[in-house]
Structure formats: structure tokens, C-alpha cells
Design brief:
heterodimer, A: 159 residues, alpha/beta, 3 helices, globular, B: 370 residues, alpha+beta, 15 helices, 48% helix
């Protein structure tokens, strides 16, 4: 098992100006990466003999109002270490390379983010209607300022 | 009209679902068939999409919990646990000892109940009706235990941020002990009905193989991954709560066929039972909820918490902006990845074996659609 410092050192050595360590909480090692290198980055951490991270837990999209953050959670079954990878894309019409070519399991996670946040995954094999109804025409619903036909904002509690 | 040729069948498409008894919920499988052999299978999901993640952004943390019970309703305790774990990590709350033990007891009882549902419906799908009746009988005792503790049998709202909602009543301990002491013999009964049954073996051995490579490619977890021979259990490999205090084994299979997945779950029933027994023995006295302000308002932060659910890794990604509501809440269920790998493993198998394979993945659809 590589510790947090070793993982970050390996990553920064390989991608000097495009990877930077960030602090989330003591239990999670996290890095912020340049969206341009995303496919190469996951290829590297999957194949590097000291990292071998290929078990993708999840991919989250987050609307940060200025841009959309894509957050990957990945771990290694051999070494039992884990890594959180954050990257930023444009809020409207954002594009990022797919990682489903490197890790097949990313397919549905990316399809979901495409549908709910409107981020296009370049090179994804099947970006088609997924969770929402076939006749959905109200735009990506997970954006923070989205207001649909039946959407009611709940009052603030306790300020 | 084309003359029929010898040895030639025309390929055709079949819709399996959305309403089909063996799809355990509302899943539509678009199958391309050559006679009885599947050429291609394409899952269509979304029929149960209730926008839980969106609704949670609009609710306070305590209000989220009853809603999250509907995310994975067969093991609601796990859903509550993973959400509370994430919220507690952001707010750096220490959960009292007794509450941790009560959580483990409930989680493992819930895992047993979930595996019993699996065992029952799985054997129903294979045409064996009797095991279902026995499984539901034992599950009933667990439901009674939950009911006397929190008043609910399915959506508990029991595990809260900082602890649990209430202590166990007086009648709980004797009934739980009686259950734990008799359960191993009950599992022997199920095994006597199925494990070495030649018809059962013919339907499950070397059928619907989800091998190690497919599991690793698609992020399969839980019993599906373990049946393929990978020893990976978050209770041991990424410990949370107080699981490092209990002794238990991690059962694994060898090839990842239907029979392996069945066997892994049956052996997990026994292991969970032993964890409940140890937790009941060690249960300390004390508080059941951490001292907190009445209004739960975590600081700005971000956490991804994950636990081992009966269906694999269950994860919860919370981003807090310092208000009473989560800024973003993302849920991850094991079934999501297990549904995803169907197109990879279905081609080439018979339609009847697809039913067996799908049942053995133990997918529930609300977890996929959210």
C-alpha cells in the first residue's frame, strides 16, 4: 500500500504542471488535474506497478455555478489505497475526454453526468437518453439554477 | 417470401420487461435473439428515477434520511449508515460506543434479511418455491426486531447523524439471541434444499459466468466480485464504524458462475450471524446519540464515504457549503455497476440462463435509477 505522499509524488513527477494535491479530509488523498490529461492520467494510474488503481467507485458531477466539477473516486484492489480526482469543465457546453476507453465501468457514470449536467464526454460510445423520460425537454436538471414544471424550492430552516 | 433454409433462424428482438416477474423491479432488457440464444442484450433503465439526489439538495440533513431509505429499500439501514457516516466525517462527530454497536447489529441483521430475500426470489426464479417460504419465515423475525426498535419494517429512519434514534426495547435482546442461536441450523435447512440438489446444480453450475476480468473492468463489488475469486470486502479493506473489532471470514468463489454467487451469499449469512452474536455479547451501556446542537449545520467540506452493503459498495458523496442542506449529494450503489455489465456477459447464453444470471446478480432497480 502506497501512502498518500508516495501517490502524490508519483503523480506530480509524471504530470508536473497538470496535477496538484488538494486537501479534502484526512481519510482521502485528493488531486486536482487538468481536464486535458484525464484519459492519460487514468491510463497511468491503472498501469503503474505501484498504483494499479482500476476499481472505479463512482464519478460525480457537481455544479459549482461557475463551472462543473467532475469528481472521480478510484481505488486499487491489490494495494487497497484510494484516490479522489477532481477536474473542472465549462458549465455550459463543457467537454471532456471519456475514460470509458480506459475503465469500462465509467460508461454509465459518464452517461448519467451527460444527461443530468450536460457535459459532453468526447469519445464516449453511447451518449443517449438514460435516466430521464424519453420526451424530456427541460434541460439538464441537476444544474443549481434549474427550475422545471413541478419544482418547488423548500424554505430555508434556521437561516 | 423467403424460403426457410436448413439450420437457419432469423434473428429477432424481444423486450424482457419493464414488467416482468424476474426483473425484480422495473428493468427493460432489449434482447436480440437467435432462437433461444442471446446475441445482444441492452438494459434500459430509468423507470424508477425519482430524482432523489436533486430532492436532497433541497432538504435538510435529517429530512434526507427518510427519503434515502427509498434509495435501496431492501437494506435501508445501509443507506442511512452511509449517509450518516459521510455527514459525521464532514462535521467531525464522534458516535458513542453503544450507538456504534447498535448500528452494527442492525446493519448485519439487515444484511441477513436482504440475503434471505435474495435466496427466496432467486430460487423462485429457478422454479423452486419452497425455499422462499422458509426464507420469509426467518426474515419475519428480523422484521419484528426492527419493528419493536423503530416502529418500521422496511424504511426505518433509525440511524441518525450522531447516533441512532432510540435505544432497543427490553424484549429485543432475548428475541435477538434466540434468532442468532437458531439461525445456523436454518441455513443448514436452506442448503439441504438447494446446495447439492442436482436440478439446482444443472441450472447454476458454469452458468452465467461473470469472471474476474469483467468484474474488475466494470467496478463490480460485493458478492459478485467475491464470487469471481477476489477477496475484497470494505468492512475489512477500508474499515468504517467498528468493524475492525469483529472476527469474520470473507467467503470467496472460484469461477464466478451463478452457483458461486449463491454460495458466497449463503456463507455470508453465517458470517453476518456471527458478527451479530459478537456485537450482542459486547454491547456496552451508555449514550445512543452524540451531543449535538439541535440544528445540524456541518462546516464547508467534501467527503466520499463508502460501506459494504449486501449488494456491493454503497457510496455517498456529500459536498457541504456550510448550510443546513447538502450542496450536492451523490449516491452510488452496487447494482448500478452490476446492471451495466449485463451486455458484456449475456451474449451467447440461453434466455432461461439469463434469468438465473440476473437473479444471482441480486440487482434492485431503485438503486440504479435513484
Amino acid at each position: 500500500m502506497a501512502d498518500s505522499g508516495t501517490i502524490i509524488r508519483l503523480l506530480v513527477e509524471k504530470f508536473p504542471s497538470q496535477v496538484e494535491a488538494i486537501e479534502l479530509n484526512p481519510k482521502q488523498t485528493a488531486v486536482q488535474i487538468d481536464p486535458k490529461i484525464v484519459a492519460a492520467f487514468f491510463e497511468f494510474i491503472k498501469t503503474h506497478p505501484d498504483l494499479k488503481m482500476a476499481y472505479l467507485s463512482s464519478i460525480s458531477g457537481v455544479d459549482m455555478t461557475t463551472n462543473i466539477d467532475i469528481v472521480y473516486f478510484i481505488s486499487s484492489i491489490e494495494y487497497k489505497h484510494k484516490l479522489t480526482v477532481r477536474t473542472k469543465v465549462d458549465r455550459l457546453g463543457g467537454k471532456i475526454d471519456t475514460i470509458s476507453t480506459v475503465i469500462k465501468g465509467a460508461d454509465w457514470f459518464e452517461r448519467e453526468i451527460w444527461e443530468l449536467f450536460g457535459v459532453e464526454f468526447v469519445g464516449h460510445p453511447n451518449l443517449t437518453q438514460f435516466l430521464l423520460p424519453d420526451d424530456w425537454d427541460e434541460g439538464p436538471p441537476m444544474l443549481r439554477d434549474w427550475t422545471g414544471r413541478n419544482f418547488v424550492k423548500m424554505p430555508e430552516i434556521g437561516g | 417470401m423467403r424460403e426457410p433454409q436448413a439450420g437457419y433462424t432469423e434473428e429477432f428482438e424481444v423486450n424482457m420487461g419493464p414488467q416482468h416477474p424476474s426483473t425484480h423491479g422495473v428493468l427493460r432488457l432489449l434482447l436480440r435473439m437467435d432462437g433461444e440464444i442471446i446475441k445482444n442484450a441492452e438494459p434500459h433503465v430509468g423507470y424508477l428515477h425519482r430524482a432523489i439526489e436533486k430532492i436532497c439538495e433541497n432538504r435538510t440533513y435529517p429530512q434526507c434520511i427518510p427519503l434515502l431509505d427509498r434509495f435501496e429499500y431492501v437494506t435501508s439501514m445501509s443507506t442511512e449508515e452511509v449517509f450518516c457516516l459521510a455527514a459525521e466525517r464532514i462535521a467531525a462527530i464522534e458516535v458513542p460506543e453503544r450507538a456504534e454497536y447498535l448500528r452494527v447489529i442492525m446493519l448485519e441483521l439487515n444484511r441477513i434479511a436482504s440475503h434471505l430475500i435474495f435466496l427466496g426470489t432467486f430460487s423462485l426464479d429457478l422454479g423452486a418455491i419452497t425455499p422462499f417460504l422458509y426464507c420469509i419465515r426467518e426474515r419475519e423475525t428480523i422484521m419484528d426486531l426492527f419493528e419493536m426498535t423503530c416502529g418500521q419494517r422496511l424504511t426505518y429512519n433509525y440511524i441518525r447523524v450522531g447516533g441512532v434514534s432510540q435505544d432497543i426495547p427490553e424484549q429485543f435482546m432475548p428475541l435477538a439471541r434466540k434468532f442468532v442461536d437458531t439461525f445456523q441450523a436454518r441455513v443448514d435447512d436452506y442448503e439441504a434444499l438447494l446446495t447439492e440438489n442436482p436440478i439446482f446444480l444443472a441450472r447454476t453450475k458454469n452458468v452465467g459466468i461473470v469472471n474476474k476480468q469483467v468484474c474488475l473492468d466494470y467496478g463490480a463489488s460485493g458478492p459478485v466480485l467475491r464470487a469471481a475469486g477476489v477477496e475484497w470486502d470494505l468492512r475489512r479493506d477500508d474499515p468504517y464504524s467498528i468493524y475492525d473489532r469483529f472476527k469474520f471470514e470473507i467467503p470467496t468463489g472460484t469461477v464466478g458462475d451463478v452457483w458461486d454467487r449463491y454460495m458466497v451469499r449463503v456463507r455470508e449469512l453465517r458470517q453476518s450471524n456471527e458478527i451479530v452474536r459478537q456485537a450482542l455479547d459486547q454491547l456496552p451501556t451508555g449514550d445512543i446519540k452524540a451531543k449535538m446542537k439541535p440544528l445540524f449545520k456541518p462546516p464547508v467540506g467534501e467527503v466520499y464515504a463508502r460501506i459494504e452493503n449486501s449488494r456491493g459498495e454503497m457510496g455517498c458523496h456529500i459536498i457541504s457549503d456550510g448550510s443546513t442542506k447538502p450542496y450536492r449529494l451523490k449516491l452510488r450503489g452496487g447494482s448500478f455497476c452490476h446492471t451495466q455489465l449485463i451486455p458484456e456477459v449475456a451474449p451467447g447464453i440461453m434466455i432461461a440462463d439469463l434469468v438465473a444470471m440476473f437473479a444471482s446478480l441480486d440487482v434492485i432497480l431503485p438503486e440504479v435509477d435513484r
